[in-house]
Amino acid sequence: MDESTTTLSLAIGARVKQERQSRGWTLDQLADAAGVSRRMIINVEQGAANPSVGTLLRISDALGVGLPSLVESPRPKRSK
After folding, report:
1. Helix (H, G, I), strand (E, B), or coil: what is residue 23?
2. Cα dist. 61→56, 64, 69, 70, 79 in Å?
3. Which of 10, 20, 21, 34 is the most exposed place for a label (fewest CB within 10 A)?
4. Would you call 59 exposed, middle or buried from its count of C-beta atoms within 10 A (0-12, 13-18, 19+)?
5. Cα separation of 13 and 8, whole Å?
6. What is the pLDDT of residues 56-76, one digit of tens each?
7. pLDDT, tens only, 34-63
8. Are 60 and 70 in contact (CB under 8 A)?
């Protein structure tokens, strides 16, 4: 993966993990709710996977958040 893809994958993973943990869900609970494997959830959260739009849609639906909130590119930090 190139740098921008890696950055986006890590950001998506962090958002998925944050949403999952805010609900008090285990990896297995999210995997069951989304209909994807536990391994896929782990890979997404670690930024190690380049999941399909379909997979991300299933995860976002299971979490009850819009797909755009998961895949929005990280905003560059503004210097003061």
Report:
1. coil
2. 8, 5, 11, 11, 35
3. 21
4. buried
5. 8
6. 999 999 999 999 988 876 666
7. 999 999 999 999 999 888 999 999 999 999
8. yes
